[in-house]
Amino acid sequence: MSLLREAGAREVHLRIASPPYQNACHYGIDTSKSTDLIARGRTVREIADAIGADSLAYLSVEGMVKATGLSPEAGFCLACFTGDYPVPVPEEADKYALEGGCGCD
């Protein structure tokens, strides 16, 4: 944002083509902790202030799914947006969670 303002922008209005990414993804995106995400626990206004934008808006979950042209029943994982994980996630999940073995010896 600062570069845009330095280049002469009087206002910066940011639009994001997804819902706020608020929850850790344990299925492929490398975010093991929700606390690493700017949208976690913050309002849209608080995020806009933190990044220096005059305004900020996100696409809704429904709008994002609709934009794919696929049925909502297509099996989308939306856990990083909604917090509804398709399978239980360990509370202390990290990249070493599966390296300790199954404990079935």
TrEMBL record:
**Residue ranges of the TM segments:** none
* Gene Ontology molecular function: transferase activity
Statement: the UniProt record of this protein carries the keyword Coiled coil: no
Which UniProt key words apply to this protein?
A: Glutamine amidotransferase, Transferase
Its recorded name reads Amidophosphoribosyltransferase
Which source organism does the UniProt entry give? Symbiobacterium thermophilum
- Where does the source fall among the domains of life? Bacteria
Coiled coil ranges: none
